[in-house]
Structure formats: C-alpha cells, structure tokens
C-alpha cells in the first residue's frame, strides 16, 4: 500500500470513529450525522412522547412518526430545518413556533392541526421570515368532510412569510387565498392535493389564485373540483406546471377553459389525467379541447385515463411543435386517421398510449349522478372491443420520436405479408407493443434504429427470417408469452435471427417450446442473456458454441432430465466471462446415465449454476433429494460410487451406509 493510500485510510478511520461516537441529544437512539455541513439529529420513528434535549450546534431535526402532542419548546433556536410531521400535534402554539426564527424548511403535516378550529389563526407564521418551504397538509380524519368543506384560512393566515416559495396545504371549501396571503408574496410552488392532505375546492374561479403572481407550479390533484372558470389561470403569467388530475366531475369539457388560459402563461407541463367519469362512455378528443395549446411552448402533455376512444382528424396540427412527451395511457383508443398524422409533432420524443390498468374494454355506462358527466353516446361497445389495422399502410412517426408504447391496446394485426411499415425518416429506438394481438411478426420496414422491442404476450405463432430484417441495431428483444414453439423447431428457424448480429438480450420464455432447431442461435455472436425458462424443453440440442459473450442462460422450469455430452460442450466453450446457468425446477435424474452431467455441473469452474444446491434430482423409484450433498472429490467416487442420496433406501442401484446413500455405477 502506498504512503498516500495509507494516509487516506487513516483519515477515513478517524472520521469513521468520530461519526460512530457522535452524539447530539439526550436520546441515545437518535442518529447523528453530518450532511452538507449541517449536524442532523434523526429521531424519527422512536415512539417518543416528548422531544429529547438537543445540543446547541444541531441545525436539522427529524422527529417525524412519533407521538408528540405539541411543538417542542426547547429545541436549539438556530435550527434551519424541522420535521415534526406524522405525530399527534393539536392546536399548535404560535408563540412556540416563533422561537425558531431561522427556520428555512418546516414540515408540520400529517398531525391534527385543525382540531378545534374552523379557521386557521391569523399571522400564525409571521416571525418565520426566512422560511422557504412549508408543508402543512393535514389528514385528521376526526374532522368530518362536511365540516372540512366549511373551514377556511383566515385573513392574514400566511402574512409575514416574505421568503416562502413552496407550500403544500389543505384545499378547503372556503378557499380564500386572496385574503390569506399577502399581495406581494413569493410563492412559486402551491400543492393542494389529497395525496398531501385532504382537499375540497368545489370550483376554481377567476380570483381563486389571483394573489399568486409568482406562481410557477400548481397542483390541484383529486380535490373534488366540479368546475373551473375560464380565466382562472390566465393571470398566472409565470406558470410552467399545472396538474388538475383526478377531478372526475370536470370531464374533458373543462379543457377549453383551461387551455385558453394557458396560452397566456409560460406553461411547459400540463397534466389532466382522470378527468372523465371512471365508468363513463368513451369520447372523442376534439380539436376544440386543445386548440389554444398551439399558442404555447408546452413540452409535456398528459391526458391519461380519460376514456378517450378516438382523436379527431387533424388534431395534431393544433398541438404545439415544442411537445417532447405525450401521455395518453389507459384510454381505449381505436383505429383512426390520426395514426398517420405524426409528422406534425416534429419534436416529439416519447409517446405513451399503453393500457396498464385492469379495466375491460366494455362500456359500463355513464355515472348519471354526476351533473357534469357527458351523457352523449359517441363510441359504442362494438367499436372499442378490437382495433384492426387496415393493410398496406405506412405510418408516419414523429421524426424525433425515440420511445413508443402501445401496449395492451388489443391491436390486431392479421396475417398479411409485408403489410406494415414506417416511413424511414424516424428516430424510434424503444418500441413497446406487448399485450396486443399480433399473431404474425412480419417484416416492418423503416425501423432500422430500434434498440429495444417488447413483443411479448401477443399470441404470436409465426416469425420468419424476414421478421427482423430491418432491425440490425436491436439490442433487446422480448418475445416471451407467445406461441413460437412450433415455429422455432423447424429447419427454417435457422435464419430467424440472422439479422440480429448485435442482439444482447433475448427472452423466449413461456413459448411452449419443446425443441429448438440446432442452429437457431448460430448467428447471435453478441448475445449476453438468453431466457428459455418456462417452456417444455427436454434436451439442449441448440448450438451455443459461437455465443462467446453469453453471460447467462435461463433454462429453469423446463423438462430437462440431464444434458448430454454435446450440450455440455456447447456450454463449455471458452467465454469472456463466467457463464451463469439457471436450471431450477427441472426433473433432473439421479441415475448412472446422468452421473457425468451431475459431476460436470458440480465441478464446473467456468460456469455458475444459480441456486445449484437447491436443485433436486429424482431416483428411479421416484424419490427426490437436493443436490447439496454432491461431492465430486469424495473417495467413494474413485471407487465408482457417488454420494447423492441422504435418506434410507435400498434397491438394485444404490444402498445406504455411514449416514449416506450411494449409487453403484460400473465403468464410470
């Protein structure tokens, strides 16, 4: 070890010793450590009913998830960060909080701050001039919803917070933010969300947020909003982020009001997921819903889970060219002309239109208890069940699109040769089409940049040497949970993967494979991970000797009883790194015929069998044992006997003795 290395090691040991011996409070279970030059006292989740005494040099105190009933009175007055959330603090005292004038970050949420109050006290935080972040979202379920809807912030509730930039709070029925905050406040981030506290806002009107001139990020998540007035966001000139998701009484009909206002802001991200009735009729996303967005510099648009069935023709022309991401997940989209209009989104890099929820495609009817629910029938059940694409079409992808997800949409591609393609002017690298009905993987032109493809769970039973002809840059291919077993054992399978010279990961699990053609992988010289698990493979007949970069192969949950000499030679090829083999849950046999394989598996130096000692093998009489006791260097092996069975048994092939059992194999 060099002198410099020795000195550095000594410094590290000194620092470690000081850290381990560090003390910061009267509570021995509190952890004390430095972070960014501040000494932190971490006393969270200790079931404390009273705050411990802290050393005066502490600047950050964590007391969340305890049983405190009041704000501690004797903490160091110089603290800058305090977290006393998730306790049982009721009726917090203004005079106590005023002691900590240097606070910059305060979390007093998840207590029961509103117990006994209908209004938040006026000027409660006025002495905290340096406070930058305030988290006071409360979830006191002792207060009934009917009462919470009547509560409000009193005039001047947040006066004095001249440095406040970020606040998370309850949205109350009597939302009088204009009176509660000073006109020259510095708030840039406002979060009103059921995830950060209970929220009941009913409606958003022109003057609701008028006082927040500096506001940049506004979250109104699941606040039971029933109406948003046109002009409600128009005065928020600095707004870059708006989330109005999970207010299902709004429906898509609120979008014109919101998008009209956004053209007067600096909006970059607009999220409006789950606005439509959860079990309502599928709708058409119309130009009138979003037309004003073309006057913005919007980068991210999210309209997921809104039961959108069709996108109106030419709608993409009204979206801003600045868009880089669109999310329309969990919508029952069906085939429409909008599929061919991607060239208008010239800067789009990612499009997510997959379905990740468990809902069926059947329409359950509109929730007529909601006054704002659109009762107009626009798309029928029959139209949304399957989406069949017409033949001989070339799809125009946005030229900069790198990631496309259309998973679980029940898209049906029929068996038509050379029917589909993408115009060559595209940048697509990631394609997720799992969970559809692609029975036949044909030749798709224009996808030469692809690096990642997921075609799993498509009921696919046919692939040919043309299927991946245009995907020479592919690195990851998932074909799991299909029906390719019959196709891959034919001689024609020899060339199926010929064009995938750079492929590193191939997943063929759950494909009903019982036999693979011997040369099916011969062209895959760069393959690193091969998954053949959960099939019906009885023997390894395929050649892997050319796969010198192979790092792992998963053969688990098949029907392999042993590997023959040729298969062992395939796996014994000298590789760049140790090969990891998974063979669990196979019916391995403990017989004289499998002895060579068992010995090879146990003694192998350039291979690692994952969980090998937990593998089991079966004797001819049906009894099973774990392979852990296998010892290829045992002296009995030299006498043509092998230790592999630990329970008492006796037949022609093995006997017990000295707490072990032995198979007798002659001329081994």
List the topology elements:
Elements (H helix, E strand, L loop, with lengths): L2 H18 L10 E5 L2 E5 L17 E3 L18 E3 L10 H4 L7 E3 L11 E2 L12 E3 L9 H4 L3 E2 L12 E4 L7 H4 L8 E5 L9 E2 L12 E5 L5 E2 L12 E3 L11 H8 L6 E3 L11 E3 L1 H4 L9 E3 L5 E4 L13 E3 L22 E3 L28 H5 L1 E2 L4 E3 L7 E3 L5 E3 L6 E3 L7 E3 L4 E2 L1 E2 L10 E3 L7 E2 L12 E3 L6 H4 L16 E3 L21 E3 L20 E3 L10 H8 L6 E4 L5 E2 L5 H9 L3 E3 L6 E3 L5 E3 L8 H4 L2 E5 L8 E4 L2 E5 L4
Parallel strand pairs: 2-3, 3-4, 4-5, 5-7, 6-8, 7-9, 9-10, 10-12, 11-13, 12-14, 14-15, 15-17, 16-18, 17-19, 19-20, 20-23, 21-24, 22-25, 23-26, 24-27, 26-29, 28-30, 29-31, 31-32, 32-33, 33-34, 34-35, 35-37, 36-38
Antiparallel strand pairs: 1-2, 38-39, 40-42, 41-42
Question: How would you briefly describe this protein structure?
Answer:
The chain has 668 residues and is of the alpha/beta class. Helix content is 11%, strand content 20%.
Task: Output the number of helix runs.
Answer: 11
Query: What would you report as the Rg, rounded to the nearest angstrom?
Result: 33 Å
The largest sheet, given as strand count, sense and whether it forms a barrel, is: 23 strands, mixed
Helix-residue proportion: 10-25%
- The mean pLDDT is 82
C-alpha geometry? globular
Low-confidence runs: 10-20, 358-392, 632-659
- Please give the number of β-strands: 42
Distance between the termini: 50 Å
Q: Structural class of the helices, strands and pairings?
A: alpha/beta
Q: What fraction strand?
A: 15-25%
Task: Tell me what the structure shows.
With 668 residues, this protein is an alpha/beta fold. Helix content is 11%, strand content 20%. The strands form nine sheets. It has a 23-stranded mixed β-sheet, with no helix packed on it. Strands 21-24-27 form a three-stranded parallel β-sheet. The relative contact order is 0.04.
């Amino acid at each position: 070890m060099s002198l410099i290395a020795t000195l550095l090691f000594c410094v590290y040991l000194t620092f470690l010793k000081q850290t381990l011996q560090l003390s910061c409070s009267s509570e021995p279970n509190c952890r004390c450590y430095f972070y960014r030059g501040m000494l932190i006292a971490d006393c969270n989740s200790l079931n404390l009913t009273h705050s411990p005494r802290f050393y005066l040099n502490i600047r950050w105190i964590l007391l969340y998830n305890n049983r405190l009933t009041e704000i501690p009175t004797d903490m160091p007055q110089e603290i800058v960060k305090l977290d006393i959330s998730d306790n049982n603090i009721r009726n917090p005292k203004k005079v106590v909080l005023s002691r900590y004038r240097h606070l910059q970050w305060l979390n007093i949420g998840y207590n029961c701050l509103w117990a006994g109050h209908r209004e938040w006290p006026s000027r409660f935080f006025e002495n905290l001039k340096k406070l930058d972040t305030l988290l006071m979202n409360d979830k006191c379920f002792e207060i009934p919803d009917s009462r919470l809807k009547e509560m409000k912030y009193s005039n001047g509730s947040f006066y004095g917070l001249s440095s406040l930039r970020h606040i998370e709070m309850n949205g109350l029925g009597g939302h009088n933010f204009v009176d509660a905050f000073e006109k020259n406040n510095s708030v840039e981030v406002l979060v009103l969300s059921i995830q950060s506290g209970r929220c009941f806002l009913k409606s958003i009107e022109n003057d609701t947020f008028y006082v927040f001139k500096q506001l940049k990020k506004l979250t109104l998540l699941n606040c039971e909003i029933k109406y948003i007035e046109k002009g409600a966001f128009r005065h928020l000139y600095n707004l870059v982020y708006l989330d109005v998701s999970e207010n299902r009484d709004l429906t898509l009909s609120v979008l014109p009001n919101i998008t009209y206002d956004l053209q007067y802001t600096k909006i970059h991200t607009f999220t409006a997921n789950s606005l439509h009735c959860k079990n309502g009729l599928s709708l058409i996303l119309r130009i009138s819903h979003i037309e004003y967005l073309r006057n913005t510099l919007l980068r991210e648009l999210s309209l997921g889970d809104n039961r959108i069935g069709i996108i109106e023709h030419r709608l993409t022309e009204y979206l801003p060219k600045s868009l880089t991401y669109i999310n329309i997940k969990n919508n029952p989209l069906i085939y429409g002309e909008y599929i061919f209009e991607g060239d208008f989104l010239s800067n789009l890099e990612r499009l997510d239109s997959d379905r990740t929820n468990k809902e069926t495609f059947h329409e359950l009817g509109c929730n007529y208890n909601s006054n704002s629910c659109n009762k107009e029938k626009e798309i029928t059940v029959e139209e949304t069940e399957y989406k069949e694409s017409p033949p001989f079409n070339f799809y125009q992808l946005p030229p900069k699109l790198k990631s496309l997800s259309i998973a679980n949409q029940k898209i049906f591609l029929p068996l038509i040769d050379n029917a589909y393609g993408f115009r060559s002017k595209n940048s697509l690298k990631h394609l997720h089409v799992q969970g559809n009905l692609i029975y036949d993987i044909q030749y798709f032109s224009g996808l030469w940049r692809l690096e990642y493809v997921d075609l799993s769970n498509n009921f696919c039973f046919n692939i040919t040497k043309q299927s991946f002809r245009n995907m020479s840059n592919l690195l990851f291919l998932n074909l799991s949970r299909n029906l390719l077993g019959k196709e891959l054992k034919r001689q024609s399978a020899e060339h199926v993967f010929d064009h995938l010279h750079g492929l590193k990961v191939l997943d063929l699990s759950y494909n009903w494979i019982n036999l693979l053609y011997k040369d099916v992988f011969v062209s895959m010289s760069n393959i690193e991970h091969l998954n053949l698990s959960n099939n019906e493979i009885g023997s390894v007949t395929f050649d892997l000797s050319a796969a010198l970069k192979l790092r792992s192969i998963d053969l688990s949950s098949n029907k392999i009883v042993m590997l023959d000499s040729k298969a062992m030679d395939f796996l014994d090829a000298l590789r760049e790194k140790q090969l990891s083999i998974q063979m669990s849950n196979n019916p391995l046999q403990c017989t004289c015929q499998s002895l060579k394989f068992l010995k090879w598996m146990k003694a192998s130096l350039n291979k690692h069998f994952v969980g090998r000692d937990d593998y089991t093998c079966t004797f001819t009489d049906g009894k099973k044992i774990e392979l852990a006791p296998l010892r290829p260097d045992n002296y009995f092996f030299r006498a043509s006997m092998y230790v592999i069975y630990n329970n008492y048994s006796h037949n022609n092939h093995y006997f017990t003795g000295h707490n072990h059992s032995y198979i007798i194999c002659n001329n081994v």
